[in-house]
Specification:
Elements: E1 7-10, H1 16-27, E2 31-36, H2 39-50, E3 56-60, H3 66-79, E4 85-88, H4 108-118, H5 120-134, E5 139-144, H6 159-178, E6 184-189, H7 207-218, E7 229-231, E8 234-235
Parallel strand pairs: 1-2, 1-4, 2-3, 4-5, 5-6, 6-7
Antiparallel strand pairs: 7-8
Helix pairs in contact: 1-7, 3-5, 4-6
């Protein structure tokens, strides 16, 4: 068991922001556990980063399943005995796949599916892995949110996604408040519009630019910010 390296978990790590965050954290010397709902895709992504000489292993994780969250916690405890960083990146955006993108035609089922992954998934994973941070009184939790969840700039369209990201921000605030006085810091991040499967090829930011603030928050020093919402390493309005 190698307990000298800091250990980081990235959810939804097989592609896009999760893959790049796994790469950048490993480049900074972290032992990264790249998780993916699709085990084969996760393994393939993990091997790709290993071939770059990086300390990355893959593990299956379905954030909508309590059982796989607990299995992951057990695996980390057995292998490393601790967890230092959690990047809650796994998410879905399915509003436009179900017809209209308007709140007027929004299907409750679409909202339920979105919340199941984007909100309850964050809650499940954090609850399962937090004890590994508490026992060493150290942790950095980064919740990947979006400017589309900002109440100060709330607009129309994509209701499921917007509501889910506003809820992620609420989770960030609640966890940060209940962890006050510990060395476990919890923050939300808006990575901006990034060239991923979700963002599309016309997005102005590369994945590397998109993960800069995620990695910055994941590696904050003691006494760093907690309960905040950040873009480009600057606090933004809720």
């Amino acid at each position: 068991m190698n307990t000298t390296k800091k250990v980081a978990v990235v959810t939804g790590g097989n592609r896009g922001l999760g893959f790049e965050a796994s790469r950048q954290l490993a480049k900074q010397g972290y032992q990264v556990i790249l998780t993916s709902r699709d085990e084969a895709k996760g393994k393939s992504a993990g091997i790709k980063l290993k071939n770059e000489g990086l300390d990355v292993i893959s593990q299956p994780l379905d954030v909508t399943s309590d059982e796989t969250c607990q299995k992951l916690a057990k695996f980390i405890d057995n292998e490393f005995g601790k967890l230092d960083v959690l990047v809650n990146n796994a998410g879905v955006y399915i509003d436009s796949q179900t017809g209209s993108n308007s709140i007027f035609d929004a299907k409750v089922d679409t909202l339920k599916q979105t919340l199941e992954t984007n909100v309850y998934g964050v809650l499940r994973v954090t609850q399962a892995l937090l004890p590994l941070m508490k026992k060493q009184n150290y942790g950095r939790i980064v919740n990947v949110s979006s400017g589309m969840g900002q109440l100060t700039d709330m607009r129309g369209g994509s209701p499921g996604y917007r509501i889910s990201k506003t809820s992620v921000n609420a989770l960030t605030r609640i966890f940060a408040s209940e962890l006050q006085g510990t060395n476990i810091l919890v923050n939300s991040v808006c990575p901006g519009w990034v060239q991923t499967d979700m963002g599309g090829e016309n997005a102005p930011r590369t994945p590397e630019q998109g993960v800069d603030t995620i990695v910055w928050l994941a590696t904050l020093g003691d006494g760093g910010a907690t309960g905040g919402f950040f873009r480009d390493r600057q606090p933004i309005e809720w």
